[in-house]
Amino acid sequence: MASKSLTFSVRPRGKPFHKLPEELSLSSASTSSDLYTQLASSTKTSIHRLRITKGSDGSLIPNTSSRPVSDTGLRDGSSIYVKDLGPQISWRLVYVLEYLGPLLIHPLLYFLLPSSSSSPSFLQTLSCTLITLHFLKRELETLFLHRFSSATMPLFNLYKNSAHYWLLAGLNIAFWTYRSSSPAAGDSNPWITWPSVALYVIGELGNLNAHLVLRSLRSSGGNERGIPHGFGFGLVTCPNYMFETLAWIGICGVTWSLASVLFATVAVGQMAIWAQKREMRYRREFGGKYQKKRSVILPGLW
């Protein structure tokens, strides 16, 4: 059976759109990705800057080649709204740049801050090693492990995210940890140091395992979602965040620094918000197939 043509009324959302057509026609067999491609071509705008919503209820029309445009709820004569999201930057590049800050700052200040009459203490050396390895792992996961559901994010996020990592995790922790007068410049207490290192190792390995599970749910270049199972996923919604928290508790125990506690507190608070949103999304997308979690990041606590 031949597919019929669908004609949509096109309206801008927000500021005026250069060369935005008033109408757009597609075959009913076309995908929602074709809709994005045709509008990007008409407006001479990057496809990643476009956000297209239905005029009937304002819901997002996803940019995917696996869903016919007729399955989005659009009909002949439907209205669609197109918004310019502004300058974009790839998720992968944002992650690489934001993690690069602490990865460079910690070794640099480790060598620069101690006075000429004193060398870094054992705790300062251990702190620099653990933090550098943590962000090196982050960089390697970004380059070779993570699969992103969206290609880009607003360029502004680069500055916001980089401030979080370059200032809070980089300059803030490094300055207060590697000074000759810092608590970490003193003697190590093995009853605190080695349990902290153990927490760090468990946290990093558990976090890596959770990331491997999440990677397995999505094909390369795809944006499909699935229900994750495995170590930690029966306890909380996001065990990757739970293990990340354990790793930072370990770092706090080694650095003896309130600066580390500050960064960890801000980071855990943000991860909890993300985890709560993911729990709600799992419930909405998978319904009865998904086992609801009472805790999203810390078992019995949060």
Estimated share of beta-strand residues:
5-15%
Gyration radius (Cα, Å) is 24 Å
Strand order of the largest sheet: 2-1-4-3
Number of strands: 6
Overall SS class: alpha+beta
Percent in helix: 40-55%
- The number of helical elements comes to 7
| Biggest sheet statistics | 4 strands, mixed
Order of SSEs, N→C? EEHEEEHHEHHHH
Which residues sit in consecutive blocks of at least 5 with pLDDT less than 50?
Answer: none
Description:
By secondary structure, the chain is of the alpha+beta class. Helices cover 51% and strands 10% of the residues. It is built from 7 helices and 6 strands, in the order E-E-H-E-E-E-H-H-E-H-H-H-H. The chain has helices spanning 32-43, 91-112, 122-144, 156-178, 190-216, 239-255, 258-286; strands at 5-12, 23-27, 50-54, 79-84, 88-90, 152-154. The strands form 2 sheets. A 4-stranded mixed sheet has the order 2-1-4-3, covered by helices on one side. Strands 5-6 form a two-stranded antiparallel ribbon. Helix 6 packs antiparallel against helix 7. The longest helix has 29 residues, at 258-286. The radius of gyration is 24 Å and the shape is elongated.
Which features characterize this protein?
302 residues; alpha+beta; four-stranded mixed β-sheet; two-stranded antiparallel ribbon; 7 helices; elongated
Could you give a quick summary of the protein structure above?
This protein has 302 residues and is α+β, with helices and mostly antiparallel strands.
Secondary-structure blueprint of this entry?
Elements: E1 5-12, E2 23-27, H1 32-43, E3 50-54, E4 79-84, E5 88-90, H2 91-112, H3 122-144, E6 152-154, H4 156-178, H5 190-216, H6 239-255, H7 258-286
Parallel strand pairs: 1-4
Antiparallel strand pairs: 1-2, 3-4, 5-6
